[in-house]
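We emphasize that the prediction below concerns an isolated chain of 122 residues; any contacts that depend on oligomerization or on bound cofactors are therefore not represented. The input was used exactly as deposited, without trimming of termini.
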Amino acid sequence: MKLHLANFNQQNIFSGYGDGYVMINKVRHEQNLIVFPDEIIEQWPVESVAELNLAHFDHVLPHKPEIILLGTGAQLSFPDYALMAKVIQFGIGFEVMDTQAACRTYNILVEEDRRVAAAIIL
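Result of the prediction step, given as a token string:
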């Protein structure tokens, strides 16, 4: 699916997605990644939602996002509650959704000029 949204002033946005990939600013990515409005961390070393731990977010926390959107692939899958609680203790919101919903939500939050990070598992 292609996504079309308004003026983003050189920010990273999801411009499409499908089975096993996302597109950011019309560039296709086929590996797990973390997306900020001004940075992309490629090849995020996560195999599954079940294995996630706080160390997987070491590159995210210093950015101090208001919210982390965890895209869990084609199906919604929740990480361990203890992980979610640890992230929330940093004063960061933590939302879990399938990857396509995470892409759409990220774009909306970027358009609202929110400090957001999308952690995407493909």
